[in-house]
Amino acid sequence: MEADLAVIADEIYDLLVFDGRQSPSFPTLRPGLADRTVVVAGVSKTYSMTGWRIGWTIAPEPLSKAMGNLQSQETSNPCSVSQYAAVAALTGPQECVARMLAAFEQRRDLVAARLRALPGVRIPEIGGAFYAFFDIREPLTRMKAGGIETSLQWCEALLERQQVALVAGSAFGVEGHVRMSFAASEATLASGLDRIAAFLQTG
After folding, report:
1. For residue 2, is it within any domain?
2. Both 87 and 114 in a single domain?
3. Separation between Cα atoms, residue 199 and residue 121, nearest integer Å
4. In a 10 Å sphere around its CB, with 0-12 CB exposed, 13-18 middle and 19+ buried, how is residue 201 labelled?
5. N or C, fewer C-beta in 10 Å, the chain?
6. Residue 41: beta bridge partners?
């Protein structure tokens, strides 16, 4: 606030938080933040409704009106089926969210334990969502002789040799790291982790 900055708060994962924790909405953290914050959210992640294309913003009224004016000239409305489905998801029973969160926590534990067992791989605590963002800088130093020097090259080699697709950390501005999604079955994750381990051993 001292720097007079506006904030766009991406809260699409706000309910996918692990270990009984909660994710407070950014504009509630301090008086005055609501006047300079745009909250972005939707049903894509919490309710697995990615293809339904329903999201929303919460913003100061003048900015909301301006965004509405702009959007009305650039896009049409979401289809009525998607809108009714989103209302049903938001206002209906929420047990499905709790079940999904429990499943993601179990997969998180599997992925984190397996990654921490790999030589040179470092992974911080995963507090929410369904991604593991881990440090491969030490393995990269060992693989330079083979021409693999960046996280993108590492991911490309992993895909080519082991058919496992990860996202290079450089895509997020963090070189030497990679991102793995654990939005998959435990059997699929275990197979992928086996292949990552084999890649590190032979790389």
Report:
1. no
2. no
3. 13
4. exposed
5. N
6. 56
Q: Is 32 exposed, middle or buried (0-12, 13-18, 19+ CB in 10 A)?
A: exposed
Looking at the fold, whether 108 and 175 belong to one and the same domain comes out as yes
Q: Strands, DSSP E only, in 59-189?
A: 131-135, 167-168, 177-181
User: Rounded CA gap, 181 and 93, in Å?
Assistant: 27
* Spatial distance between the Cα atoms of 168 and 171, rounded to a whole number of angstroms: 6
Tokens 């369904």 map to which residue? 130
Q: What is the pLDDT of residue 74?
A: 87
Alpha-carbon separation of residue 65 from 26, 78, 83 (angstroms): 21, 18, 20
Contact 11, 23 (CB under 8 A): yes
Written as six digits, the tokens of 81 are 């089926």
- The residue out of 65, 91, 117 marking a domain boundary is 91
Q: Is pLDDT above 80 for 1?
A: no
Domain that holds residue 133: 96-202
The answer to whether the Cα torsion of 183, 184, 185, 186 is positive or negative is: negative
When pLDDT is averaged across residues 111-126 and rounded to a whole number, the result is 97
Report the side by side order of strands in the sheet with 177-181: 131-135, 177-181, 167-168
CA–CA gap between residue 183 and residue 104 (Å, rounded): 7
